[in-house]
Amino acid sequence: MNRLDASDLFVLLERAFHRRSRACGGCAFSLPFRVEGAREANWAVIPSHTCSPKCEDILHKLVSEFQNSYRLA
Known about the structure:
The protein is of the alpha+beta class. It has one domain (2-72). The protein has helices at residues 6-20, 53-69, and strands at residues 2-4, 33-34, 43-44, 70-72. A two-stranded parallel sheet has the order 1-4. A two-stranded antiparallel sheet has the order 2-3. The radius of gyration is 12 Å and the shape is globular.
């Protein structure tokens, strides 16, 4: 499993998110942050309050995929 700094992981996640949600220019999310005690993934993000349900679903799926491949350094 690859280990990345939060900023590097954010860049990868943001690029993938914008490729999948091209029609939306207003959604955003937090930098990945450490989740202590998590068994599967050691990080998470928080979507902005302006994200639509469609974009939140895209983000949730991407985060799940990325959590399987990346851990915070």
